[in-house]
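Here is one chain, start to finish.
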Amino acid sequence: MLLTLVFVVLFLGCAKSPFRTRNSPEPISGGGTWTPPSKPEIVLENLLHSYNEKIIENFNLCLSDTFVFSAPEDSIEAVNNNREWLFTNWNLSVEKRVTSNIFKTFSEKKDSLDLTLFMDFGSMVKGEWTDTTAVLSINYRLSIYQFKPTEQVDTAEGVATFYLKETGLSWWSIYFWSDVPKVSGRDDWGDFKAEYRD
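Its structure:
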C-alpha cells in the first residue's frame, strides 16, 4: 500500500497533467484565404487570394525554391528601350521583393490605390501533366484603381502559364511562370510587376 502511494505521488509529481491543453502550432499561412495546395489548381486559387488580400506570406507559399519568371514580349520591349536588366535573372528572391513592394505600396496607399486580380478558371487550359508536374494556362485581368488625385482604372490582361511541381507534404508550387499580353503591345502582368522591381 505504501509502495503504491509513493508511486502515485512520484507519478503525479513528474508527469504532465493529462488535462492540460497543448499549445497550438503557429499557422503556416499569414491569415486570409489559403488552402493547402494538394492540387495544382489550388495553387492558382491561393495566388489569386494572396494578391487580392495582399498577404505576402501566402503569396510566397505558392512559389518553389527554384522559381523563375519570364515575360518574353516584355523582355524584348525592355531591351529595345535600353532597360534589358528589367527582366533579367527574375528568380525567387526578385519575385518576392517585387510582390512585397506591390503589396506594401497598395496597403500603405489604400485611400488612393487598389488592385483586383481576376483569373478566369473557366478558361484554364491544362497542358503537360504527370504525377509530380503540371502546366496550367489561365487568362487574367489585373485592374489597378487610382482614386486620387483623379479617378482612373488601368488594366493589364494576358495569359499566364504556370509550371508546377509537387514538393514535400504532397503540396504543389510554381517553379516557372510565363506571361504574355492578351493583345500584343498592351500591358500585361509582367509590365505591372516590372514597375516595382528595384
